[in-house]
Structure to design on (505 residues):
């Protein structure tokens, strides 16, 4: 009788040890799975503040632009490292909708310009964004058509134009507004 | 079984397992009570034996046998639990609860709205300015199953509105494939490119759809609020943000407002966090938070979808058999 009791006690200890071990392994696995992909937020091509110009990649090669990082209208995005707001500024800490006509987000790691048109008439907002970039990047219309960019409108701004890649008005394949 | 009755979901195979688990737990409970009673009886006999050796021996044997039986029952329970835990990989419960089985609703195959057998009617209106066209689009979206197509050129647009006729029943609206709802975030847009969303765990189809949804929600930008609560690339509401970021047990506690100076808007406007929370929402609810019915009476399009163009994204980039189409 005692033998059976000892066997059962040993069995119980083995089972408990196995459960503890399995849970330890699982915990370490889940911690590994929770290590989300690190986003490619490299420093990108941020020029020295003394440089008057620098080069960014374009569709047909490098394009020399004015150093817009030293422009007072270029601001760091405080909650997105390596992202910059050009021209207008939307405070990420504010829950209020922006009353700006456009929002240009520059992602340094990929040298990409994301342009949101935030006010109707959309054609006027696009024109304002275009003019800002032409002047502050010091580019011609031909050059600016080759930068890495996209112009779109959120559905909350215009149901008519949402979901389309509009392009700059003077570029080939631009959507007429 | 907790299924099949009024107010309960349909029965699934999982509920049978739940039933067996329930019976198992019930038996363990009953046997615990029986063992306790047996211990009490054996103890009583021990005390009232008056030194009679045979009664003493019987009482001791009874205690030992009950103890052995009870250990066998508990061991079987633990072994079963260990076996099940070694088979199931999605348990993040640690050591407990041991025997709780949660049945999750299985994806329901849904008929493509475009193929529903409903009577569709359409009318054509002309507009000359963006404002008038927007009004027509909105009126179309307000109709049951309304889906508009815009043709023409500046100064002379035609808005064709297809909607469910009076004899029709239900049916989801959709943006005509080939129309708007096609543009996706650029490959270099680290907020919402297809490649990035796939790296977060979305399937290729889901990533294609949600990259498109990001363009219609916030133009693919990381920062921006609608004024009613939603913010960020995917315009996630504060309620959903709380569900997925509040508390150490949530999916993304590092994205809670507490980590952004107490500002929920700042947390929502953080691109990586917004994309991660969106990924969890798609996993749990499909595209419903973007394509589902808008129940807010104060919204500009009450009873329409939250984002009409999100449906266009699903129709353009999704597959008809994709189970995550639920929510239309």
């Amino acid at each position: 009788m005692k033998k059976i009791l000892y066997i059962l006690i040993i069995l119980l200890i083995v089972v408990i040890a196995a459960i503890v071990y399995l849970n330890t392994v699982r915990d370490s696995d889940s911690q590994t799975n929770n290590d989300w992909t690190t986003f490619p937020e490299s420093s990108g091509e941020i020029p020295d503040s003394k440089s008057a110009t620098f080069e960014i990649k374009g569709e047909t090669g490098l394009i020399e632009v004015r150093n817009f990082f030293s422009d007072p209208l270029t601001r760091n995005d405080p909650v997105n490292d390596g992202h910059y707001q050009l021209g207008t500024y939307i405070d990420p800490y504010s829950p209020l909708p922006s009353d700006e006509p456009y929002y240009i987000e520059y992602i340094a790691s990929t040298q990409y310009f994301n342009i949101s048109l935030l006010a109707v008439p959309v054609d006027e907002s696009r024109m304002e964004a275009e003019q800002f970039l032409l002047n502050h990047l010091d580019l011609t219309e031909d050059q600016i058509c080759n930068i890495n960019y996209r112009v779109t409108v959120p559905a909350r701004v215009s149901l008519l134009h949402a979901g389309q890649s509009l392009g700059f008005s003077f570029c080939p394949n631009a959507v007429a507004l | 079984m907790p299924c099949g009755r009024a107010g309960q979901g349909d029965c699934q195979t999982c509920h049978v397992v739940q039933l067996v688990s329930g019976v198992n737990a019930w038996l363990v409970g009953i046997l615990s009570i029986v063992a306790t009673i047996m211990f009490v009886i054996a103890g009583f006999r021990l005390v009232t034996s008056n030194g009679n050796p045979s009664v003493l021996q019987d009482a001791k044997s009874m205690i030992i046998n009950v103890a052995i039986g009870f250990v066998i029952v508990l061991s079987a329970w633990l072994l079963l639990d260990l076996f099940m835990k070694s088979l199931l990989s999605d348990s993040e419960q640690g050591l407990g609860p041991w025997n709780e089985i949660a049945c999750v609703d299985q994806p329901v195959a849904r008929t493509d709205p475009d193929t529903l057998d409903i009577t569709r009617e359409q009318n054509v209106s002309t507009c000359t300015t963006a404002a008038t066209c927007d009004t027509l689009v909105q009126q179309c979206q307000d109709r049951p199953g309304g889906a508009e197509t815009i043709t023409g050129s500046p100064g002379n647009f035609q808005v064709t509105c297809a909607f469910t006729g009076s004899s029709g029943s239900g049916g989801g609206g959709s943006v005509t494939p080939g129309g708007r709802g096609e543009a996706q975030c650029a490959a270099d847009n680290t907020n919402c490119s297809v490649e990035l969303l796939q790296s977060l765990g979305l399937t290729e189809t889901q990533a294609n759809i949600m990259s498109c949804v990001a363009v219609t929600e916030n133009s693919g930008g990381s920062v921006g609020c609608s004024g009613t609560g939603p913010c960020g690339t995917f315009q996630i509401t504060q309620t959903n943000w709380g569900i997925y970021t509040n508390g150490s047990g949530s999916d993304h506690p590092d994205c809670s407002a507490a980590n952004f100076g107490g500002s929920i808007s700042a947390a929502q406007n953080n691109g990586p966090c917004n994309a991660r929370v969106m990924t969890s929402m798609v996993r749990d609810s499909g595209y419903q938070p973007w394509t589902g019915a808008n129940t807010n009476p104060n919204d500009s399009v009450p009873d329409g979808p939250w984002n009409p163009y999100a449906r266009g994204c699903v129709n353009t980039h999704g597959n008809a058999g994709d189970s995550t189409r639920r929510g239309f």
In short: The radius of gyration of chain A is 27 Å. Strands of chain A lie at 53-58, 61-66, 74-76, 83-86, 102-107, 112-117, 149-152. The first strand of chain A starts at residue 53 and ends at 58.
